[in-house]
Structures are given as C-alpha cells and as structure tokens.
Design a protein that fits this description.
two-stranded antiparallel sheet; 16 helices; mainly alpha; MetI-like fold; disordered C terminus; two-stranded antiparallel ribbon
Length: about 400
C-alpha cells in the first residue's frame, strides 16, 4: 500500500479483503522524501542484489589472456624443435665419431689437466685476492695504493698475454735468484728461468695473477655489504680485530661473495682453454690436435663443448645448494629445491584433475577418512595431511554452525 493512498483514506485497488492480489512491496514507494528525492528501491546504493533480484545467471570469471606470451613461447618451441630435429637427421654431426672420442684416454687426460688448473688457480687466486681486498680497505695509502695498482694492471692485461709473457720470461731475465740487491750477484740462490718456468708454471702463474685481481674485488664488495652496525657492535663488545673479521664480518659477507665467486670459477673452467697457446695439453688443445689429424672438426668440438657443459652444470648445482645453506640466516623459509618444486607441481596438477572430475584425490583414494561435523549432521573430510590446522578450524566452524541451528541443543 502506498503512503499517499494511506493518507487520503482510500484503499488501493487490489488490496481489499477479497482481493487475491498480493499487496505491493515497499520498494514501490512513490512518496517524496523531505530532501526532495523520490526513492525507487529500498536496496541501498552499492549493495549487491540478492535472491530473485540477482537472477539465476552465474558470474563467470574470465582469465586475462596473454597472446604475445603464447606467440613468443610458440616461436621458441618451434626453433628448439627444429634444432633438435636437425641434431638427429643431419649426418654431418657424425655422432658415431663423437661417441668414439668422448671417453678417449687423451680427452679424459686433457679434461683432468683443465680441472687441475682450475682448482689450483681458484685456490691461489682467492688466497691472494683476499689479501688484496684487505689491503684495499686499509686506511693507509701505502697499502691501499699498491693494491689498487695491482688490480688495475692485471685486470687490464688479457690472460693469454700474461701466459705468453711468463712463458718467455727467460728472454728478459735468463737467471733469477736471491743475493745482493740491485745487482746480478745471486750469491744466495740462483736458477735458470727457462728451465724453472715451464708451460704449466707459466699458465698457473698467469691464471693466478689475472684471477686474483677479480677475486679481490669480489671479496671487497662482499665485505662492504656487511652492515656497519655489525662492526660497531662487535667493536663495542671489545672483540679483537681478528675475531671481528673472521667470526662476524666474513660469515655474513660469504653470502654476497659466493654467487660472484662461483661465476668466476665457471669462467675459469672455460678460460683454461687459452693455455693451448703454450702447447699445454688440456682438453681444448687435445681436441685441436686430434681433429687436425683426422679432419673431424665438428664432432671433436662437440666433445669439448659437452665436457665443459657437464663441469659447469655440476658447479651450478653445487652453487645452488651452498647459496641455499647460507640463506638460512636471512629468510624464514628456505627456497624449495627443484625436486620439491616438482613434487608440489605434481600434487597441484593432481588436485586440479580431481576438481575437474568432481572429486578430490583424497576422496578417490579414501585414505583420509571423514570427521563428524557436529549435531547438524555435516561431515568434514581431511583432504590433506599437511593442513591439520585448517582442518581443525573447519571442524570447529561446522560445530558452531550446528549448535546455532534452531531446534538443536548442544
């Protein structure tokens, strides 16, 4: 009944005692509000309609489309597929020759020499680089100046040039030794330069001096990354400088040093290939000697490439787990390993498959069982053994709903 008809004492049509028509609802008001507006709907503005007003049409969530992403992925997959297809169909790769020389004794021996140079060069360069980094951080210009000059010089000269210079050092200094300063009188000890500095020694000295310049900058950057408050607090506690460096600064700097240090080692593994210039039989030089004899260039170069890839992959895996170990002091939860990510992906894919089929994996397996939901007769199913807290909360919520149902006593 409208408010206008009620004020005039009239009865609106269809609202008499014998009328079967339902009286109009309050949403059909036609009176004017004191502010001059005429409301047409009782539902407040911004309130979503419910019941019959909402209709029966369900809301559909439309996912955002990424056409450029799919096109780029399709191009990449096509190029990779084309390359893989050519690997198996192109006879010029000569995979039989590759298999014949992959584990040949000469190749394995050359790989061992490359790894030996890598290990010795890494250890010696980081020992020397650590000392240079400490000198660079010294407030004394007499220490920081020569250290800066060393880093500048050996980062400026290519590695292959350094190796050649030390290999031919006998041309400049036929004799080396200890004796009277500023003279050639080596009365204490003397040795022949050409016989002492062999090809292996020249390569190792060149690698050590070259890589130590880069290692010193890596270590210095890691030390500078440590918060100054750590140094101030350790100094306030009265700890000696040696203890502050090795027990406070260095463990925190290791997390910043490690990624760049591993990158340096990986580069050094491949950088050892330049020692072929002094006829040192590492893996690349050995491959060159073999394909110069039989003319099988591509298969033997593939042998060297695959061995380099295997070594760098092993170093990358070790780097990942060492970085994960050092991340314990900075993150509450460690990043998932590739195996853990694979398991999670399989579990999520299995759960989505169950949702598409209308049942959950736990319901299909029947392994988790059901739990009573309360007096209302509902049941709660534990679908994941790793979500005990969420399941208990759901059970309590169901019990509280059941206790609030009319006619049901606790």
């Amino acid at each position: 009944m409208s408010l206008t008809a009620a004020r005039s004492g009239e009865v609106a049509p269809g609202t008499g005692p014998g009328s079967a028509t339902a009286p109009p609802t309050e949403t059909a008001r036609t009176d004017t509000a004191p502010d001059g507006t005429t409301p047409t709907d009782k539902t407040p503005t911004g309130t979503p309609p419910t019941g019959a007003e909402a209709g029966t049409r369900p809301r559909v969530v439309v996912q955002r489309r990424h056409p450029a992403r799919w096109i780029t992925a399709a191009v990449i997959v096509f190029v990779l597929a084309q390359f893989v297809w050519s690997l198996f169909t192109n006879p010029r790769y000569e995979w039989d020759v590759f298999g014949q020389y992959f584990l040949a004794p000469a190749i394995v021996k050359g790989l061992g020499l490359s790894l030996l140079l890598t290990v010795l060069g890494t250890v010696l360069s980081f020992i020397l680089g650590a000392g240079l980094a400490v000198l660079r951080l010294s407030p004394s210009p007499l220490l920081s100046g020569p250290a800066w000059l060393y880093v500048w010089f050996f980062r400026s000269v290519p590695l292959v040039v350094l190796i050649l210079v030390f290999y031919n050092l006998g041309y400049l200094y036929p004799k080396l030794g200890l004796g009277t300063p500023f003279t050639a009188d080596h009365w204490l000890v003397e040795f022949d330069t050409t016989l002492t500095i062999t090809a292996f020694a020249a390569a190792l000295i060149g690698i050590t001096l070259h890589e130590s310049a880069y290692a010193s900058e890596i270590i210095r950057a890691g030390i500078l990354s440590v918060d100054a408050g750590q140094l101030e607090a350790s100094a306030a506690l009265g700890l000696p400088a040696r203890v502050r460096f090795f027990r406070i600064v260095l463990p925190q700097a290791a997390r910043s040093i490690l990624p760049n240090a591993v990158n340096l080692v990986i580069g050094l593994v491949k950088g050892t290939s330049v020692v072929f210039i002094v006829a040192l039989p590492e893996i690349f030089y050995t491959v060159q000697v073999i394909y110069n004899r039989n003319g099988k260039v591509i298969p033997l170069l593939l042998v060297a490439c695959v061995w380099y890839a295997i070594v760098t992959t092993a170093l990358s895996i070790a780097q990942y787990y060492v970085e994960r170990h050092f991340a314990r002091g900075t993150t509450r939860q460690l990043p998932a390993t590739p195996v853990q990510r694979l398991r999670r992906w399989v579990r999520e894919a299995w759960a989505r498959l169950g949702e598409e089929q209308g049942t959950t994996p736990a319901a299909r397996q029947g392994a988790s069982g059901t739990a009573a939901a309360g007096p209302a007769g509902a049941a709660v199913t534990d679908t994941d053994a790793g979500t005990d807290a969420g399941t208990d909360a759901g059970v309590e919520a169901a019990r509280s709903l059941g206790s609030e149902t009319p006619g049901v006593s606790r």
